[in-house]
Design goal:
Chains A, B: It comes from Actinacidiphila guanduensis. Two copies of one chain form a homodimer. The first copy, chain A, has 350 residues and is of the alpha/beta class. In chain A, helix 5 links the parallel strand 1 and strand 2. The first copy, chain A, is elongated and about 90 Å long. The longest helix of chain A is centred in the middle third of the chain and has 17 residues. Chain A contains 15 helices and twelve strands. Chains A and B meet through helix 4, strand 1, helix 5, strand 2 and helix 6 of A and helix 4, strand 1, helix 5, strand 2 and helix 6 of B. The structure holds a DNA duplex (30 and 30 nucleotides).
Amino acid sequence: MNIGEIARRAGVSRSTVSYSLSGKRPVAPTTRKRIQDVIDELGYRPNATARALKEGRTRTIGLVIPPAGNRLNHMQLDFVASVVDAAARADLDVLLSPSGGDHDKSFERLISERRVDGVILMEIRVEDARVGRLQQARLPFVGIGHTAGDEEMCWIDVDYAGLIRHTVRHLADLGHRKVALVNRSPELVAAGYGPALRAAEGFAAATAERGVTGIDVPCGDDARSGQDLLAALLDAHPDLTALTTINEAALPGIQRALDDAGLVVPQDFSVTGVAATLWAEDFRPPLTAADVPALDMGDKAVALLVERIASPSTPPRHILLAPPVSLRSSTGAAPAHRAAPAEKAAATRS
Amino acid sequence: MNIGEIARRAGVSRSTVSYSLSGKRPVAPTTRKRIQDVIDELGYRPNATARALKEGRTRTIGLVIPPAGNRLNHMQLDFVASVVDAAARADLDVLLSPSGGDHDKSFERLISERRVDGVILMEIRVEDARVGRLQQARLPFVGIGHTAGDEEMCWIDVDYAGLIRHTVRHLADLGHRKVALVNRSPELVAAGYGPALRAAEGFAAATAERGVTGIDVPCGDDARSGQDLLAALLDAHPDLTALTTINEAALPGIQRALDDAGLVVPQDFSVTGVAATLWAEDFRPPLTAADVPALDMGDKAVALLVERIASPSTPPRHILLAPPVSLRSSTGAAPAHRAAPAEKAAATRS
DNA sequence: TCGGTTACGCGAATCGGTTCGACCGCGAAC
DNA sequence: GTTCGCGGTCGAACCGATTCGCGTAACCGA
């Protein structure tokens, strides 16, 4: 069932059917009605492939996600969902491509076979070969995260440096003198993952500025790692009274380690950071944190990409988001003295 | 840069380039080398759209996920990841379509514009209009979950009835006399979501069989709902000593409600159910549960779909998975007497 | 009455591949 | 010495849409 079949049944030429559908040239009302009746009867919709070939665009965008091994965190998941949603509203389909390494089969297919009109690139690293590949292919794209040196591309990012700086100041104002940054996984930090690097930057700047002692440690992106890490940290630093983090997935583990040590938040220990709203609200007590507007970012990313596809030659735009810190109840004045973890733990175990 | 350009530069016809690439007809080694050199130099890859038009297949499959509003749980997320992965291995791309209602724009586009060669349909309901739509369009598809009446389709499902029955027997064997089933959200239950219905079936059968009292309650798919529900449940049923669940997302909330009530697992209360391995291991103590092999299911779904695309007329196959129950440490002998929640909670609050 | 719009519709070209039929030259077989 | 088969190549048709150029008829004002 194709446009020729419709034309035949309506007794007109194929071009007339096409014009009737697109409205790009006038078609007599009676003819149009006849055509529409046939279309309605057969439930015809023009073949997307043929249309794409002729028009030179696929009405599809690629969404490059971290590879399946690395589990997506809630922020990323919300982002994916909102991209798919926003794309649907713009009558675009979304092609998924898991890609981590530089030479990924599925990524390469997307680009060189021209399956998509544009790409949204998640989890950009500071040195990212995919950016060069996209530029070389002249394919419009929007990065989630930015690379320091490159102003030639469109991107949207969260101002991790600024937000972490903000949280550290907040803790310093509450009297904390020794503060930890629970960063993303060692692998991501080593790979030069932007948010991890910039969080560290902001952390270093703010601790120096306020004269507090800062401990910057990477942590696997899961509850277990968070628990082990914090237990070790509490053990090694009896005077540690607060932490800030960008590692959402470690939060449940952090909570457990604090419980195990018999520390009450925020009386004995303060916790803050940057996280998706859901995670922040799931913490107990609710986390004082900068809420990453992941849903909003998806909308913005699609809008930016659509704009870029329409006019690829305009100078690239950048959006740096700095959501406000929601004061919930996981931070408080520094305790005069934090009981040694061992003795507290013993007390609760009994 | 297209096949004509390659042909021109290599001094051959377009068909020769095509045959050289596909190997469907012999090409002289010298010619082949000349062509390959030009291709390597320009980095040519045949345009996917044009190829799809001629071949009549897009090498793309559609993955229909629950709409963005309903947050995906870990099981579903693992499943999506493994589908994308398995598809990539089979040189297929994955087009995402969020669809809940019956008349979804993006779903309809996928089907009627023939953007995909086949579809994987997640979260099937007992009455699901999308199934009929796919059959009518003669588009191969595999359902995740099955509809009772319809044996005409391919599906993969987890044997929720059997697994829940199994967990209830386990609890009964440990001496529990009153057991709750924490089911999925009221909306899903009302919509006739298969796993929810079948879990209830299995629960009813097993409680009857073992003569234990069963309480079957729906619960929102999030931590907060789990917490509220269980608190209410403990309050209303002082003799409730165990629960089983298929609602992963509620687990963290269940954990909190138990903590708040001062109940220790498994001494005071037993918890079990069906969950993704990650959630089961994240519970404290680790959850005795049937581990849903979501990653495996993705592989199997893609394999089944590929098979069905290749030969659409063979009778549909069904796969019912019944993963073994991993005995971890969240279930134990029923306590002689469970302290009233109020008095225990008061004790911990002090 | 005549030139000039405008409305309407058709045929053909085009997008970038794949594939069928045909052709040519050469060596083997009868 | 013709014929057959086969390796190697080319031209043309085709997939299903869009769109350009052109023809025709009706209608307008001068």
